[in-house]
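Anyone? Bumping this.
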Amino acid sequence: MRLEKRQHSSALAMVLAPIGAVAFTLLVSTLLVLWAGAPVGQTYALLAQGAYGSVFALSETLTRAIPLMLTGLAATVAFKAKLFNIGAEGQLYVGAMAAVAVGGMHGGAGWDLPPALSFVLMLLAAALAGALLLLGPALMKARLGVDEVVTTLLLNFIVLLLVSLMLDGPMKDPTAMGWPQSVALRGELELSKLIPQTRLHTGLLGAVALAVALWALMKYTVLGFDIRALGANPRAAAFAGVPVTRTVVMVALLSGGLAGLAGAIEVAGRTSYLTLDMSPGYGYSGIVIAMLAALHPLAVVVASVFVAGMLVGADSMSRAVGVPTFIADVIVAASLISVLVATLLTQYRVRWR
Amino acid sequence: MTDPVLSLSNISKRFGNVVANDAISLDLQAGEILALLGENGAGKSTLVSILFGHYTADAGSITVFGQPLPAGDPKAALAAGIGMVHQHFTLADNLSVLDNVMLGSESLWQALTRKAAARAKLVQVGQRFGLGVDADALVGKLSVGERQRVEILKALYRGARILILDEPTAVLTPQESEALFDVLAQMVAQGLSIIFISHKLAEVLRVSNRVAVLRAGKLVAQADARDTTQAQLAQWMVGRAISPPQRRPSKHLGRAVCVLEEVSTAHARERLNRASLTLHGGEMVAIAGVSGNGQVALAEVLSGTRRITGGRITLMGQAMPQVASELVALGVARVPEDRHGVGLIGDLPVWENAISERLRSGAFSRGPWVKRRAAQAYAKAVITRFDVRGGGPTTAARSLSGGNMQKLVLGRALMHPGSLAEPDSAAFTPKLIVAHQPTWGLDIGAVAYVHEQLIAARDAGAAVLLISDDLDEVLTLGDRVAVMHGGQLSQARAALDWSRESIGLAMAGAEGVAHAA
């Protein structure tokens, strides 16, 4: 068996590929549902209902989608430049930490600034913290050829230990009865709710706005061209005069900054303080979402809502029919694999023999 | 005539809509050198890839020494006695010659290698065919010509009786080519058969007994080498009569545009070592040399993609900036050696590729924004003026053919955006053109087109630096010719003052020749 590059991708293949991907995903997960002994139709119905079936379900899904959008965008911009940032998880945590440091109650900076200014400072600090965390690995890659996959991945663990240290030390909330959590954010810095009686907050608008902004940046600006050129062919980009190191730095600042913002917005919109289990792997899921979205910033919004929906829907489905919630991870993973294979097949044809 | 040792019958192969091989039938006799002649894309490589089992033919069959050859199985081809020497060598630099030769011919399931026996066999094979190479030398330290011998030895060591050589002279000096031809003669004298792939007419006639010409996937002609001429071969190859390129010397010499004084670069695979050269407006200086002697460094330095560590370069009287975008802004037109890997970004559309090197000059940007409309208009103008076919501004650059890619690279370099408004203004002609292997791999029509454009730019007053491995190109186009060896440049002398012999000696680094007046 071998792969041959197609001369042209036919329109039919472009339509069939995603349909085939969905069909394959359903097939895999259906087998698992059958194995668990649950009624297939009901399981899927409950899954969909739990994800998108009511205002409450939808609000939960969208709430979960907000950090995923931001880490998805972080992965998108980095991967477009072939800077493989696996460290969004760590960048998210340092962002959250910076947000609490600037905007926390006692123990926080304690500046007596107007809330609007504090809010902006908080977001800036979070973005900057995430950005700086990625800058080191990015420069080491650009200058010394150090593999950024290794450095960014390992930094995640260092950051988690740092967070743990801070939660037991300088940032510890004295009123938390010994729970490892940070001081809470000042109340006026928290994001307001989009829908009353739900957890959905205005961070959604910010995340979508950032997706649109990133899309415009990639498509319409010189920096966007530089990022795409560097990712597609670094030697040709350098020949054309793309400032390589500067572009890598910009990508690191953008990607790390977006991941850092994800941390700040989680704190300001949902948790209001920092804990060690604040992110159930949002940084890593962002990579999956970026790939599902084929590194298109606007598609990241859709992919995040899909992935968040699966996670949220699986929770309520699991309670009703007893299929483990892991089914959500299987569906997300299977859809990622099938989308990647389907994309490959639109560009290559398989030759047997 | 005896039975052929190799017989291809009705071989066909399609890639999508492209017919790479169309019912090709061809015989190879024992003890003959058959030249497979054709332009890039004529189907030569596909044919030998099928023969060697890299591809499977859609139709047709192959017989070797009377036995049918299973399709798509390189091991079967090796076992049947077919050996291949690829244009790009398949050797491990960090292993010795002996290890390279043994690599792949030893069983995985034996505990010890049989080095002594292998060495004896290697020496014996080498002596038999006049291919002396030190068996213990590291391949990484060998010259290109020696590496090629190792490749040939490797094939012979495995018992090849039919040897396929893919463009073997592309990397050799004229003298090394002659030495190779002697080795080939010894091999056929001892009963081996050789398929010699080339697109150079003169050497095909020099070395082969018989010539088979491919054009657009079809076998268009076969002839005895003694009964045919270069003109006839060229006509078969291209499909129409072509006139050989004529010398068109420079009409008037302008002032010095670019001066290199003792320029050196850092140690790398290739470097410049105190190279000096003066380029005048209205003149084409051609650089000859065996590839790997610093041509890449020279081209990159003048393209702004490699920094110098010593010496001085002045461009129109000023110190030359060592930044690509600034060079472009100053009127340096750059045509890189590798259009796929360096010249163009295949995933991006033609229009973005057309403006990529001018994106920092302000012509196509306002603040952070790209002026997409102006950029696409410019791309359209380049496409029209330089006859880029196979796609519009939004087509991905990778889907263009090699010739059209080169037209795009050349067009964007030569055509200043300002000339859209004022086509005749001299302010927009390039000051310096750095063309590195601008015709490599192009068909004859595209080669002539590129030459025309370079000559036209020279006659419009540009200083042209042409770096080429093709001696004919160097001697035909260059007003002056300098030879590069070991990072140094010989004195640039009038093209007519060089003979093929003297240039070959200089390419090999013979002392005194390079600097003798």
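Late reply, but here is one note on the structure posted above: Chain A touches chain B through 23 residues (CB under 8 Å).
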